[in-house]
Amino acid sequence: MSLVIPADSVQLLQRMISFNTVNRLAEGILFVEGQLAQYLEQVAQAWGFKTDRLAVTGDAYNLLISHEVNAQAPWLLFDSHMDTVGVEGMTVPPFAGLVKDGKIWGRGSCDTKGTGAAMLWALRNAVQSEQLSTNIAILFSIEEEVAKTGVNAFAQKQLSQLPWKPVGVVVGEPTQLQLVIAHNGYVRWTIRTNGQAAHSSDPSQGRSAISAMARVITAIERDYVPTVTTTHPLVGKAQCSINVIQGGSQINVIPESCEVLVDRRLVPGEDATPVLPAVKSVLQPLCESDPQLDVEHVEVRIDPPLSPDSNHLLADRVGQVLTNLGFSVEPVGVKYGTNASNHTAGGLPAVVLGPGDIAQAHRADEHLDLDQFKQGINVYQALMRQPACFWEA
Q1: In this structure, what are the phi and psi dihedrals at residue 257, rounded to the nearest 5 degrees?
Q2: Residue 274 carries which DSSP code?
Q3: What is the CATH number of the domain that holds 35?
Q4: Counting beta carbons within 10 angstroms of the beta carbon of residue 102, is it exposed (0 to 12), middle (13 to 18) or buried (19 or more)?
Q5: Is CB count within 10 Å lower at the N or C end of the chain?
Q6: pLDDT per residue over 19-44, tens digit each?
Q7: Same domain as 135, residue 29
Q8: Across the strands, what pairs with 139?
Q9: What is the pTM of this model?
Q10: Which residues, 6 or more positions from 58, have their beta carbon under 8 angstroms from its beta carbon?
Q11: Closest CA to 243 of 264, 262, 269, 220
């Protein structure tokens, strides 16, 4: 099939929405973003941009699109992830990119193919207008919705292999074009209770892992969750919740295994290190009172929060551009997480900024207001067009 170059920004976004990039890492399927990445690569090359496939694992890669105007000029990096959440239960066609009532509808329209399309179209416009003195790159990253595989690979390995280092990163997420300088991180892990299977006609011959887990959950919610009180002025209070439970095999078998997934949200400045020991300490009396209680903590995953201490200069510069465009410049914090904190952990200052409302993300009728989408293009384009000296310390 021959490549069709989009005639306008909405067509570009419609084409991006048409690719099914539902994150399936939990099922062991990597690089669902492959066809979308190939399409963006072909479009970028047709517009004269340099493209690089930054290997993540196996055949999977982040796509880097770049335009260099001067080898001595600073680089500004933009980041938008390509994967989405699932489509089950959606009330609008997930991959049609339907335009209606001044909005574009479909999975990823808001979170966050809208920001990716806006960034790429802004770069096209800025280059065509010959008004660039800053080098610009756009990272289309993979696997943000589950494990942040793409951005972690970039921050921990790929960045050091580039011949340049950006002065900062603008991460695209639906912020209603408000400047986000802080957000939460998390510690997530699996708690497993092990029992002994037996026929349900005589439960005394076994040990129910589900019953054991019920005691574990009660202890955590009674004795640990109330101790989670750390706060931050931009994001509020830290949180902890148990959100998934799985156990048992069939109705007539005493369950030998049960698992829950725990989500502990970290506020900026909070250390992840004490979280797991604190939960284990709460469960210790329970385990000591019942030597047969078998509890494991496995598959621990940590994602850092974004601290406003890490991005003062970048936030100030982006804020100046927003002010000149007539937007609100009061920096805000959000409770969710983004790729920005991972870039910061890799040594790059990062802020979050993009068109769309997070309230519309992950919804059954996900959509993006087209007026705001076009405003997002203007904002990204204005950032790209700043003189090189604007970004230098």
Answers
A1: -150, 145
A2: T
A3: 3.40.630.10
A4: exposed
A5: N
A6: 999 998 766 777 999 999 999 999 99
A7: yes
A8: 64, 79
A9: 0.94
A10: 30, 31
A11: 262
For residue 82 the two structure tokens come to 């390509």
Does 57 sit behind a cis peptide bond, omega within 30 degrees of 0 on the bond before it? Answer: no
Query: Is residue 154 within 8 Å of residue 54, measured between CB atoms?
Result: yes
Residues 18, 135 within the same domain? yes
Give the tokens for residue 138: 């756009």
Average pLDDT over residues 108-129: 97
Q: How many CB atoms lie within 10 A of CB 383?
A: 25
Give the N- to C-terminal CA distance of the chain in Å, as an integer. Answer: 47
The helix-helix angle for 370-384 and 312-324 (nearest 10°) equals 120
The tokens of 119 are what? Answer: 């960034």
What pLDDT is recorded for position 352?
A: 98
Helix 9-18 × helix 113-128 angle, to 10°: 140
Please state the rounded mean pLDDT for residues 63-73. Answer: 96
Number of C-beta neighbours around residue 356 at 10 A: 28
Confidence band, pLDDT 50/70/90 cuts, at residue 370: very high
The number of angstroms, rounded, from the C-alpha of 51 to the middle of its chain's C-alpha atoms is: 23
Is residue 103 included in any domain, yes or no? yes
Tell me if residue 169 falls in helix, strand or coil. Answer: strand
The set of residues, in sequence order, having a beta carbon less than 8 Å from that of 71 and lying 6+ positions away, is: none
The tokens describing 203, both together, are: 């439960």
Are 355 and 290 in contact by the 8 Å Cβ rule? The answer is no
Characterise 57 by phi-psi region: left (phi > 0), alpha (psi -120 to 50), beta (else). beta
CATH number at 298 reads 3.30.70.360
pLDDT the model gives residue 130: 86
* Tokens matching residue 125: 């416009």
pLDDT at 30: 79
So what's the pLDDT on residue 39? 97
Q: Are strands 332-334 and 180-183 parallel, antiparallel or unpaired?
A: parallel
Collect all residues with Cβ–Cβ distance below 8 Å to 204 and sequence separation of at least 6: 198
Q: Is the pLDDT of residue 1 over 80?
A: no
How are beta strands 185-194 and 294-303 bridged, if at all?
antiparallel
- DSSP states along 99-132: EETTEEESTTTTTTHHHHHHHHHHHHHHHHTT--
Residue 152, φ and ψ in degrees, nearest 5: -65, -40
Instruction: Tell me which amino acid residue 42 is.
Output: Q
